[in-house]
Write a structure and sequence with these properties.
With about 230 residues, this protein is α+β, with helices and mostly antiparallel strands. The protein has six helices and eight strands; from the N terminus they run E-E-H-H-H-E-E-E-E-H-E-E-H-H. The strands form two sheets. The chain has a five-stranded antiparallel sheet with strand order 1-2-3-4-5, with helices on one face. Helix 1 packs antiparallel against helix 2 and helix 1 packs across helix 3.
Length: about 230
């Protein structure tokens, strides 16, 4: 029998299980950089790369061997993508979320308090631009005009403009779950939350929605043999 890829593989990490009442539930661990942490991570990566370049030059001069310079400088420049990715992972923030038949809960910070919502009320997950995106854009526009007037144009990395907030709209009220730097990462988290919410809702309605197995699609029938003794 062919084995299909689970829709819950990959990031963000997701665990599917049954709660104490035997109902389907999900735990999602979302990890992402915030715009501020992305800026700090880029700064640390830049310092790390510059350090290896300088040390390569110093060792090359001290040892009178240009290979030190070539290897250390070239390695740092060629591997800057790996360095930035590695340092970025160190600065990621984690948010833990659970979706059950009756509730949605979020822990925004490690060891932080849990906030719970009754998901039987009207709700939805959404993505909105970061609140500071417009201010950052205005600042960059002004600074670019100043640079052009001085004849020294300079590129400024947009952090808040490339960031989004994953939100939980509960009875029309917005509750921020986490700020995410990078549209691709934000969309992946949003899609996973929506998928888990849809599957839980489908099971709660006895098959009205997406089914993960043929048994779930048909639901319980008279005379069925239980799967678990």
């Amino acid at each position: 029998m062919a084995r299909y890829t689970s829709p819950f593989d990959g990031a963000p990490w997701t665990r599917q299980y049954e709660d104490a009442d035997g109902n389907l539930a999900f735990t999602i661990e979302a990890r992402a950089l915030t715009p501020l942490r992305a800026r700090i991570a880029d700064g640390c990566a830049g310092v790390c790369i510059a350090y290896h370049v300088v040390m390569g030059v110093v060792f090359g001069i001290r040892e009178a061997n240009p290979w030190w310079t070539i290897v250390m400088t070239g390695g740092a420049l060629a591997g800057q993508g790996i360095i930035r990715s590695w340092i970025g992972e160190m600065f990621e923030r984690r948010a833990l979320m659970t979706i059950t038949t009756d509730s949605f809960a979020v822990q925004r910070r490690r060891f932080g308090r849990w906030e719970r919502f009754d998901r039987r009320h009207a709700h939805r997950f959404a993505l909105v631009p970061h609140d500071k995106a417009r201010r950052e854009q205005a600042e960059h526009d002004y600074e670019q005009r100043v640079d052009q007037a001085r004849g020294r144009p300079q590129f400024r990395t947009p952090y808040y403009q490339e960031s989004y907030i994953v939100t939980f709209e509960y009875l029309g009220q917005r509750h921020d779950l986490m700020a995410v730097y990078g549209r691709k990462t934000a969309l992946a988290i949003l899609a996973r939350l929506k998928a888990c919410d849809e599957v839980v809702e489908a099971q709660a309605r006895k098959g009205k929605g997406v089914a993960l197995t043929p048994a779930q699609e048909w639901g319980e029938q008279p005379g069925d043999i239980p799967e678990h003794a």
